[in-house]
Amino acid sequence: MYVVGYFLKAVATVLNMVLWLYMWVIIARAVLSWVSPDPYNPIVRFIHNITEPVLYRIRSKIPFSFGGIDFSPILVILLIYFIQLFVIQSIERFALSML
Fold it and tell me: Where are the domains of the chain?
């Protein structure tokens, strides 16, 4: 029983780290949209390729932009924050109850 609790705690920790990293990639994408980066730069292409599937889904379901400003990164960051606060903390509490 202890092994399952430790496993769930580890899964919650890794998931939290991945979401935290993805949130910073979303922020980098938003900052890059303010400047005119080289579209052939491998870092810019990586950031675009890793964030566009999520941002496209948000934009297609909720067309939320005013005056040329895209608010989909803000919605994704809020969604990540919700997942971190609700889902991950719930998994951690459940894991601790098993220890």
Answer: 2-98
